[in-house]
Fold:
Amino acid sequence: MRLKNIHVAMLVENLYQEMEIWVPVFRLQEEGAQVTFIGPKADAYKSKLGYPVQADLAARDAVGKHFDAVIVPGGYAPDLMRTDASLVQIVRDHCQSGAIVAAICHGTWMLASAGALPGKRVTGAAQIRDDIVHAGATFVDEPAVRDGNLITSRKPADLPQFCAAIVSALAEKHA
Structure:
């Protein structure tokens, strides 16, 4: 229970990659963290395979709230997320505040939309490598990359390293 009293926001939108939400959520809950699901609306969202997740909060209601970490899953969801100004603002605010912000796979798109990538070393889905580079970051082909308060990962197979990096960063920051 290393993460007792830690509050994490998991961003949600339709067409998310199932493992990239549920594996980190369960891993963080194992450590005692409280996870809040935030979507464009406080509504249900379906994964690429139709698996539902219920958003606890609408993004506009979460702007200005502090979370110890914000996690952006992959799938096609980040492409939809970055059209919601409130979701982008949540990511931007937490990047600037020094909170842990973690993105996996196509989730790195949200870091680009939030203006958080210039000068950073990050990874993400190989398909968005050019987007990452054009947003000012150095693309690194590694399972999990931490640069300051940003943690990024490439794909579902990297979830063990991604989750370990998030848990470690949160435990270190709140020791």
Q: What stands out?
A: DSSP finds seven helices and eleven strands in the chain. The mean pLDDT is 97.
